[in-house]
């Protein structure tokens, strides 16, 4: 079980300081890009393409960690490992967990942006 926080508020605060007025653009870009990555994961799973699944999960993981979404990043790491092991039997459950966590993170970002 993943026990990392949904958002690393300290990392987000640092990003906000560095990005200043562009912080909101960064968050919106992450959210939109993440939707495409989740769709890519689904496509790879549907095609039973473990290599593409692993690569997409790896890329998504890095994006999550960089933006301060460690729990989502950890879920992506689990998906990456499954793809590398050529074991996509658990992909539907992994994708469901990633989608659910992404929704939580997205909702939390909205709260973070209105501060």
Automatic annotation (TrEMBL):
The lineage of its organism: Bacteria, Pseudomonadati, Pseudomonadota, Gammaproteobacteria, Pseudomonadales. It comes from Marinobacter salinexigens. Pfam families: Hpt. Residues 19-112 form the HPt domain. Coiled coil: none annotated. It comes from the Bacteria. One of its GO terms (biological process) is phosphorelay signal transduction system. This is Hpt domain-containing protein. GO terms for cellular component: cytoplasm. Keywords: Phosphoprotein, Two-component regulatory system. InterPro entries: AHP1-5/YPD1, HPT_dom_sf, Sig_transdc_His_kin_Hpt_dom. The keyword Transferase does not apply.
């Amino acid at each position: 079980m993943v026990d990392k926080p949904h958002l690393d508020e300290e990392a987000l605060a640092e990003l906000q300081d560095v990005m200043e007025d562009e912080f909101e653009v960064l968050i919106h870009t992450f959210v939109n890009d993440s939707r495409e990555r989740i769709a890519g994961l689904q496509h790879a799973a549907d095609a039973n393409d473990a290599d593409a699944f692993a690569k997409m999960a790896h890329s998504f993981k890095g994006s999550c960690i960089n933006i301060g979404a460690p729990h989502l990043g950890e879920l992506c790491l689990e998906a990456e490992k499954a793809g590398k092991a050529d074991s996509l039997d658990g992909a539907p459950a992994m994708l469901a967990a990633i989608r659910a966590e992404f929704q939580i993170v997205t909702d939390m970002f909205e709260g973070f942006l209105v501060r």
